[in-house]
Automatic annotation (TrEMBL):
PROSITE patterns: ALDOKETO_REDUCTASE_1, ALDOKETO_REDUCTASE_2. InterPro entries: AKR (IPR020471), AKR1C (IPR044482), Aldo/ket_reductase_CS (IPR018170), NAD(P)_OxRdtase_dom_sf (IPR036812), NADP_OxRdtase_dom (IPR023210). Belongs to the aldo/keto reductase family. Substrate binds at H109. Coiled coil: none annotated. Transmembrane segments: none annotated. This is NADP-dependent oxidoreductase domain-containing protein.
Amino acid sequence: HCLLNSTGLFHDGKFTFFTEVPKSKCEEAVKVAIEVGYRHIDGAYLYENEKEVGRAIQEKIADGTVKRENIFYTGKLWSTFNAPEMVSSALEKSLKSLQFDYIDLYIIHTPLSLKSGDDLFPVDGNGKLIFDNVDLCATWEAMEACKDAGLVKSIGVSNFNRRQLEMILNKPGLKYKPVCNQVECHPYLNQRKLLEFCKSKNIVLVAFSALGSHRDERWVDQSSPLLLEDPILNALAKKYNQSPALVALRYQLQRGVVVLAKSFTRKHIEDNFKVFDFQLTEEDMKAIDSLNQNLRYDSFLDHPEYPFADDY
């Protein structure tokens, strides 16, 4: 899961930009992941590393490790391109950077539309983000057109709540329903209600921040508990002779959740693959269920389409 080489933080409606991981490190991590056996790479225009990800994939294709059809790449439509007339051109930019003819899964990154344009985080003179009011149903129709054109195989959403999903599902003339909803999901925020709803609609729930969050003090409450230090997770890790991280990842798989795990080191990339080597008992699954406290590490901002004020 090649995630976030550079991004920014929302706080009090203001945006702070920071760089997390050098792009060259991301490129190397993708090559290592493919060598280890990973085939699903979760990317996004926002991460500003699609050229590097594409180069890594092309190199592994060229040396015979994989074929293009073996790779499942997820791309994301960034919030400044939610206006329907911007969707296809945004997709074309990603395709060009990746050196792909098509993207396997293309999803709306967030329902929080920002002012259209090439500035990823448009702000006013006070440093406040400039919102846009976009009809997400029209955005979805533009996504459907990309699928019809053969530029994407499947389309989905990210950070949508039930109400926003239903808005798409109930849209007159719907051609393709979202195949997935990618959301923050971990034992402290297990998204049980949203997962049940998505399953009832045959929508796959995809978990990001599955191991909690990196704890940047600029936006994460430092008093919030560290997921991987949880006593129950650690007790189960000892029981199964696995790491707490692997227990948290295995929990998601057994719930029918597609899980994304971010790593840039060969050891962690290899270790995460061991998630298939063991199975949690029903009793242990219930113990992890009990950890839920609706703790959201990744917060957004005061936007009209803010999805997390609803129960789910």
